[in-house]
Design a protein that fits this description.
heterodimer, A: 432 residues, mainly alpha, two-stranded antiparallel ribbon, globular, B: globular
Chain lengths: 432, 415
């Protein structure tokens, strides 16, 4: 399959100006007004475009260019607002910008796909909700009058918030966070283009193809993906129920892990390194967690084993031998882990969306879509790294962005199409 | 050389003959022990020579009710039989082909066995969906159940989760034992399961959802007297909320020792039954506890499990024994088939215990009119056929028929 007609271009150097970062959302206000006006016109234009494309089988060039400029402008603006780029964007959607979108010219589109575009886009909208959802506060009450509240923030907003803090402190945004934002923007741009009839190619959720250049990393906690995307329908249908014995076992193992983690904290604090037995025990638990989650969230097909053995599951975690850790970071590990926990929580929403969409897809086709699988693997990898960091299995801070698979040569990530055999090989999603 | 070859062969033949005799004797001893245990469990407080008078159901029920209840139960029984046949067919097919699903597992032999066990029940659940929906439709159309179709399906789905957990645990135990003890795993597995059943019976009271303390004045006042008469003082009586799902009244007794409980469905206390009639039901459940029926049920389970586990061990030998996951589908089939085949026998045991609880309730309440009334009302509200045909009675009835229960009331009154 050819490259997606909507490609995000990233020329950002990660440098950030503290003043513009501090007032970023206020500085963007004029752009929001302009975007609002533009959106009204774009709404009218897309209705005309829908009728025209239905009749002609392709979008008229004038309308296509107008809507493409709108998508480019919106992406540039969001790139600025969410700190994926530093300079103030222009208002025309045509000038180049460090976060930009390349949109192919008008091409023939299936009339059926045009006619039912809004319905067809529903799964992509669900995924976009998890990836870019607006922050919201959920509240629930019980009969005793006590309520519980939960804050839901999408991956994009969480990464932007953390990027904001990091940029304020370091005048530089971390690569991982920038790439997460760029990944979300890329998906958003592809979804917008699909909805605005600029293309009939479905948005691709694969984080490995969202960006043209991905960093190559070797990290102490690495995901390894050897999954062939095939799914047994019977096992897909009963997935949650089949996982019940694993949930019970996880719960029992989790009790032991609490005590082991406390012991590990004391030992690592005094010795600077984790005791070998505790390291092995906790590493096996995290690996088992990954195996079970991969099974539950449909990232892997087979029923996992109960011991978290290395190399025993197609979605696996390679954990390096114990190393020396900075005692200060050990002492304040819980506090230091808060940003990672926030992002991991947002990634959890993405994982749930992947599982729901993947469940339907796998049930009907017997295969898990590659993009969904890789999006889930990215999220799960980050969850695993966060656990490893929290449990002192690793002293390295979790790396939030996608990384280049070891089997993939540099600068070819975008060229890898969904279903390409090489992606069924190893996938590294390392940490920082 | 020839003679040297033949001599040990003759010795081996003598040995094997001796072994055969020993095995036959051991089997005989086991059968005798089994029979003795069954005899002890069968003992009842119902007088041995009690003969039940002939009762004409038309004296208690209208002919339209008799015909309606007969048609209602006939449909449900046939639906149940068809579901059981489907269950057997699906599991038989699964026993032949289920091992192919081994490739869907990255777990070790025991984990793979657990997966195959769960998938077997998953297939059965799928195959039984039409029968579940038919049964729900029939109960709804006769106003016996309020449960919606989605709730019936998803309730079954949630129940399937519990079944998965149980089958996983059971297979983890049996396969673990089979890996260590090889052919003799069943000799240890059966007592282990009996122990677990005992534990489950003891803790069963805590596993029943949506219960609350009884607030019915009549029950609160009369229960201590009934408990004293039955010889089970201080037994806790609780109410379970089921009215959302069904209009059928029911009650049960669970636990033993400090956990013994009588559980009354709230449909029993909605005003359709008089205070004295509710007393009969409470006394009946106390009668179960007084005669140690929860414990006896575990005893009967032991008598069922010992030969069945041995049978499973025997059948699965051709697939390398239960230590190997490929034997699991066959083991499932053997277990379920044995369960279905012995169901009529277990029904006999159950009816025997129910009759004893009825007799005990009559002695405790000393109110045959109330007992007669409650049995009549139970039949009407549950649309139970008071005098079902013999085939349905043998296959399905785990309680004496309403006619038999009324006959027992008459026998008590005349004694």
């Amino acid at each position: 399959m050819s490259e997606h007609p909507i490609v995000l271009l990233v020329e950002d150097d990660l440098e950030r100006n503290r003043w513009t970062v501090l007032f970023r959302w206020l500085l963007a206000l004029p752009h929001y007004v302009w975007l609002g006006l533009w959106s009204v016109i774009a709404f009218v234009a897309v209705i005309i475009s829908w009728v025209a494309t239905l009749i002609l089988g392709r979008t008229p060039t004038g309308l296509h260019n107008f809507l493409a400029a709108y998508v480019r402008y919106a992406t540039q603006l969001y790139g600025y607002v969410y700190l994926a780029a530093n300079p103030y964007p222009s208002f025309d959607g045509k000038s180049s910008y460090p976060i930009d979108v390349s949109i192919a010219g008008p091409a023939r589109q299936s009339r059926w796909s045009v006619a039912f575009r809004a319905i067809l886009a529903l799964p992509a909208l669900i995924l976009a909700g998890a990836l870019m959802g607006e922050p919201s506060l959920g509240a629930s009450g019980n009969r005793n009058g006590f309520g519980s509240y939960a804050l839901y923030i999408g991956v994009l907003h969480t990464a932007a918030l953390l990027g904001w803090v990091a940029s304020m402190v370091r005048r530089r945004t971390p690569r991982g966070l920038r790439d997460v934002v760029a990944y979300a923007l890329s998906y958003g741009a592809q979804l917008s283009a699909y909805l605005l009839l600029l293309t009939d190619r479905y948005p691709n959720s694969d984080p490995l193809t969202a960006l043209r250049e991905l960093p190559s990393r070797t990290d102490p906690v690495e995901m390894e993906v050897e999954d062939d995307l095939r799914r047994a329908r019977l096992m897909v249908f009963f997935r949650i129920l089949l996982a019940i014995p694993h949930f019970v076992w996880l719960g029992l193992w989790g009790i032991a892990v609490v005590f082991a983690a406390i012991a590990n904290w004391f030992c690592t604090l005094f010795r600077g390194t984790s005791p070998s037995a505790l390291h092995r025990f906790l590493a096996a638990y995290i690996r088992y967690l990954v195996h079970v989650y991969a099974f539950v969230y449909l990232l892997g097909n087979p029923f996992p084993g109960f011991v978290g053995g290395e190399g025993s599951y197609p979605i696996d975690l390679r954990i390096a031998e114990r190393g020396t850790q900075n005692r200060w970071t050990v002492l304040f590990r819980l506090v230091l882990a808060i940003p990672a926990i926030l992002l991991a929580s947002a990634y959890g929403s993405l994982l749930s969306a992947v599982a729901i969409l993947g469940w339907f897809a796998a049930l009907f086709t017997g295969r898990m879509p590659l993009g969904l699988r890789n999006a889930g693997a990215l999220a799960l990898g980050y969850l695993a790294q966060t656990n490893a960091y929290l449990l002192l299995v690793s002293g390295a801070y979790p790396y939030s962005g996608p990384t280049r698979p070891s089997s993939q040569p540099p600068a070819t990530a975008a060229a890898l199409a969904p279903g390409a055999p090489s992606l069924t090989g190893s996938l590294d999603l390392g940490q920082t | 050389l020839i003679s040297a070859r033949h001599e040990p062969s003759a010795g081996a033949s003598r040995r094997s003959h001796g072994q055969l005799t020993a095995a036959a004797l051991a089997l005989l001893a086991c059968a005798a022990a089994w029979g003795l245990a069954a005899h002890l469990l069968w003992r009842s407080s119902v007088p041995g020579g009690l003969s039940l008078p002939r009762v004409d159901p038309r004296a208690f029920f209208s002919s339209s009710f008799l015909s309606r209840s007969a048609s209602y139960e006939r449909f449900l029984t046939i639906d149940g039989v068809l579901a059981d046949v489907t269950l057997l067919l699906v599991l038989a097919l699964y026993a032949r082909r289920g091992q192919r699903l081994m490739r869907e597992s990255a777990a070790g032999p025991i984990g793979t066995g657990m997966l195959l066990g769960m998938l077997g029940f998953a297939l059965v659940w799928l195959a039984e969906i039409p029968f579940t929906l038919l049964g729900t439709w029939w109960e709804r159309s006769h106003d016996v159940s309020h449960q919606g179709y989605v709730a019936a399906l998803f309730g079954g789905f949630a129940g399937l989760g519990a079944k998965f957990l149980l089958v996983s645990l059971a297979l983890a135990i049996t396969m673990g034992l089979a890996r260590v003890l090889r052919r003799w795993w069943w000799a240890v597995a059966a007592p282990v399961f009996v122990g677990l059943a005992l534990l489950s019976s003891f803790l069963g009271a805590y596993l029943i959802p949506e219960t609350h303390a009884v607030g019915n004045g009549g029950v609160v006042t009369d229960a201590p007297t009934l408990e004293r008469r039955e010889g089970v003082p201080d037994t806790k009586i609780v109410v379970q909320r089921v009215a959302r799902f069904t209009t059928a009244p029911n009650a049960e007794s669970v636990g033993f020792g400090s956990t013994r409980r009588v559980i009354l469905w709230d449909t029993l206390l909605d005003g359709r039954f008089s205070r004295r009639e509710v007393d009969v039901v409470v006394a009946h459940e106390l009668g179960h506890l007084a005669h140690d029926h929860p414990l006896k049920r575990v005893g009967w389970l032991a008598l069922f499990l010992i030969p069945v586990t041995a049978l499973i061990a025997l059948f699965t030998r051709r697939r390398g024994g239960l230590a190997r996951p490929e034997a699991v589908p066959l083991a499932l089939f053997v277990f379920v088939a044995a369960q279905l085949l012995t169901a009529p026998l277990m029904n006999i045991v159950s009816r025997h215990e129910e009759a004893e609880a009825d007799w005990s309730a009559l002695r405790a309440t000393r109110n045959p009119a109330a007992a007669r009334g409650v049995f009549r009302e139970l039949a009407i509200t549950s649309l139970a056929n008071p005098d079902p045909p013999a085939w349905s009675y043998v296959i399905d009835a785990d309680h004496p028929t309403i006619v038999q229960r009324i006959a027992m009331v008459e026998a008590w009154r005349r004694r």
